[in-house]
Amino acid sequence: MLLHLRSFSKSITRRKLIDSNFEDTKLNRCLSTTDLIALGIGSTLGAGVYVLSGEVAKKASGPSIILSFLVAAVASVLAGLCYAEFGARVPRAGSAYMYSYVSIGELCAFVTGWNLILSYVIGASSVARAWSATVDGMLGSSNTSYFLKKNMPIGLPYFAEFPDFIAAGLIMVLAGILALGVKESTLINKVFTVVNIAVIVFVILVGLSKSDLDNWNLNPETFNRSGRSDVGDVGQGGFFPFGVSGTLAGAATCFYAFVGFDCIATTGEEVKDPQRSIPISIVVSLLVCFVAYFGVSSVLTLMIPYPQLDTSSPLPKAFECVGMAWARYLVAGGSLCALSTSLMGSIFPMPRIAYAMAEDGLLFSWLGTINSHTKTPLVATILLGFMAALMALLFDLESLVDMMSIGTLMAYSLVAACVLILRYRPDGSSRHSALGDCSSNLLCELPSESVAAEYNDDKANTGQDFYHECQSWSIKSCCCSTECPPSANSSFIANVFVAVVGVLVTLWSAVLVHWLDNFMQPSPFAIVMLIVFSGGLLISCLILWRQPQNSAHLTFKVPLLPFLPILSVMVNVYLMMTFSGSTWVRFSIWMVVGKTISYINIYIHTHTRTYTHLQT
């Protein structure tokens, strides 16, 4: 029994080895950097630019929404930099699933992949329903929703009011296009993305010509005497009408406008030069999206006063107020193109993650089948597309969208943690776990003396003396010399403090959420705990900072390690803590189902699979 438990324990902590021959793949390597940038922009620059900016400006930030988007962009770039490093290090399909498999182990990888699939399925369904609602709004009184509500009501809890055939049909059409081939689908995506960007440029340029700087400095008393019935809360007026707290609350909402760039990381086996193209496309996509969000939110609050913004269709309403009602149709067309590319960006990663998991034996093997003609995971694309279409057809997605957000934020946090783990792993171990050059089934725990000698060529000491000096220093103190190559000891210290950081960040975020909820009547205990946890995080960061990093050459590395990845984790975990208890209950149930499947699957296959690509 003890032997079985030990074997089971090893099986769930096995790490994946990636072959150094990145050209060896069943998929079609045909995507360029331009294709990836278009995919990233299309996935990220969706409905947020047409709807979210108006809602946040009116209810949370006012004109300071431009700073809300700036804060959200910085938080997103932190996650994007971590994805960019892994795109250069592990250019394989699977995104965060693959990264956690290489860094942490099989169980964590399964849970990550399981949540990513859920997130993308829900994301695709919700975007499709938004597309359907936009078309419905354009049709006016002759819309389909009125007819379906009257003739085909569902009337069940957790289900939609009526079956949305338009949303379900759209998902199946786009899934069919994606199944035809990655090159063909990216061509359509580029066309939609160009139209979307052209509309946004039009909005910004025309909006600037209709701008009034007085709208950024409203006087509440004067404005309230206007007698208008369509205005919302003016707040304190000025640039920060709802205070700095309102700007930060808006930033938390704006953060989700940048979700979607991670689909670039799932294309690792379909890009011509993944180690160069993936990092470039992630950074460029986020930069372009920030400029678009910044520009649209600026002109929107300059064209009309923020209390008069319409939360459902802010841009058409703004153009109508400045005497350009005809522009609403152009904006609606851009919105449909943006939603179409966002939908393709949600459908595209699903089969790639399922394919990667099936290749590793963690899902049914037939999900990893690659069509010989299209060079795409055809079965997985159609099946998962059908699941998303079914959800869009029948279910009320509002209660499920928060689950999608938790899964995405968890993936962002894990990728940041994986960057820390791999950067502090010994060169030999890192090379084996990333390139698959291991002669045994065990970790190479210490760097060889020849590696140490090569590392110390420019120093007076011999390689052997330098090697032993570094080992003894690692044992004596947590604050190693950063000039030493990483060792098993320094790697162990780094892993321990990465785990400590994870615990402290969770506690820090929980206390911070409680403190902000009771900001007017702060609890002294909460303030003390916040100071204690912040001090613990600072000490842990400094100890990690003093650990030696491996010197493996990558086309891109996250700067300012360990501070940027830890800051990314703090932002993500804090946002996760803001969700309601009922959302966490639903998410926990989904996690239990996933873990149960992983335990059963791993136990069944422990003695039947050949782990040529894994190490314990």
Any descriptors?
mainly alpha, Amino acid/polyamine transporter I, two-stranded antiparallel ribbon, 2 strands, L-arginine transmembrane transporter activity, transport, glycoprotein, L-lysine transmembrane transporter activity
Kindly describe this structure.
The chain is built from 24 helices and 2 strands. With 616 residues, the protein is mainly α. It has 2 domains: 25-137 and 168-220 and 237-423, Up-down Bundle (Amino acid/polyamine transporter I); 440-578, no CATH class. The protein has a two-stranded antiparallel sheet. It is globular, with a radius of gyration of 26 Å. The protein starts with a helix and ends with a strand.
Short précis:
It comes from Eptatretus burgeri (Inshore hagfish). By secondary structure, the chain is mostly helical.
For CATH, the homologous superfamily of the largest domain is named as: Amino acid/polyamine transporter I
Largest beta sheet: what is the strand line-up?
1-2
Order of helices and strands: HEHHHHHHHHHHHHHHHHHHHHHHHE
| CA gyration radius, whole angstroms | 26 Å
So, CATH architecture of the largest domain?
Up-down Bundle
Q: Count of helical segments?
A: 24
CATH fold type of the largest domain? Amino acid/polyamine transporter I
Mean pLDDT: 79
Principal-axis shape? globular
The first-level CATH class name of the largest domain: Mainly Alpha
Helical content, roughly? 55-70%
Low-pLDDT segments? 429-477
What percentage of the residues does DSSP assign to strands (E)?
under 5%
Biggest sheet descriptor: 2 strands, antiparallel
Query: Which structural class do the helices and strands define?
Result: mainly alpha
Pfam families: AA_permease_2, AA_permease_C
Keywords: Amino-acid transport, Cell membrane, Glycoprotein, Membrane, Transmembrane, Transmembrane helix, Transport
InterPro entries: AA/rel_permease1, Cat_AA_permease, CAT_C
Catalytic activity: L-arginine(in) = L-arginine(out); L-ornithine(in) = L-ornithine(out); L-lysine(in) = L-lysine(out)
